[in-house]
Specification:
Layout: E1 2-5, H1 10-22, E2 27-30, H2 41-44, E3 54-56, E4 62-64, H3 66-76, H4 87-104, H5 110-120, H6 124-145, H7 159-173, H8 182-192, H9 195-200
Parallel strand pairs: 1-2
Antiparallel strand pairs: 1-3, 3-4
Helix pairs in contact: 1-3, 1-7, 4-6, 4-7, 7-8
The chain binds glutathione.
Length: 209
């Protein structure tokens, strides 16, 4: 399997955490987003929206969308499971993950930021305000959803932690204050000591800059 990846992509970071938790061996092919490599015709043929991650299976089958890729990996290697066994807690963990993946991440994605700059003449200070606004509002909502310690939904990491940690990495990068989210900060600290999260960290990737 090949993962089309970029060290700072938070969606690809989610998949890297899942791969590390499962102990899978997956080849990585970096796609440099700031150089626009995602729009090269060869990669766009694999990812119609020209975004990472994409997973290519050994027979050439392509899977896009980080949560779909993670679902596939979870089915491929069910141990350890990426959702709590309790049905209700599993649904809550999925809801927290979707809050991040659907309600926060798309609003500050590179192509959205580039469109604000190019098509709407947004200034850097306005972009910074936009980014912080959506990340802060979304993480405040996630803070209320977190049900447990040390991980967000139990004693083991789940899909919720897999989505949360890359979003926290982004929040820190863009100076979003996190003191108002003590549960998120505690979960982040627990994940920072977990080998799978260390392995998947952006600065641990071969294409890190
Ligand atoms: N919903 C998608 C989001 C993927 C996505 O937006 N990836 C970003 C990096 S985190 C990207 O490739 N952006 C390239 C661009 O906007 O040009 C997923 O979960 O896989």
């Amino acid at each position: 399997m090949i993962l089309y990846d970029y060290f700072r992509s938070s969606a690809a970071y989610r998949v890297r955490i899942a791969i590390a938790l499962k102990g899978l061996v997956v080849e990585r092919r970096p796609i440099h987003l700031l150089r626009g490599e995602q729009r090269d015709p060869g990669y766009r043929a694999k990812s119609p929206l020209a975004i990472v991650p994409t997973l290519e299976l050994d027979d050439g089958t392509l899977i896009t969308q980080s949560l779909a890729i993670i679902d596939y990996l979870d089915a491929l290697k069910p141990d350890p499971p990426l959702l709590p066994r309790d049905r209700v807690v599993a649904a809550q963990a999925r809801a927290a993950a979707l809050t991040i993946a659907c309600e926060i991440h798309p609003l500050a994605n590179l192509r959205v930021i580039e469109a604000l700059q190019r098509e709407f003449d947004a200034r850097d200070d306005q972009i910074a305000k936009w980014r912080k606004r959506w990340i802060a509002e979304g993480l405040s909502a996630v803070e209320t959803l977190i049900a447990s310690a040390p991980f967000a939904f139990g004693a083991e990491p789940s899909l919720a932690d897999i989505c949360l940690i890359p979003q926290v990495y982004n929040a820190r990068r863009f100076d979003v204050p996190l003191e108002v989210c003590p549960r998120i900060v505690a979960v982040d600290a627990a994940c920072a000591a977990h080998p799978a999260f260390l392995e998947a960290h952006p600065q641990a990737q071969p294409d890190a800059e």
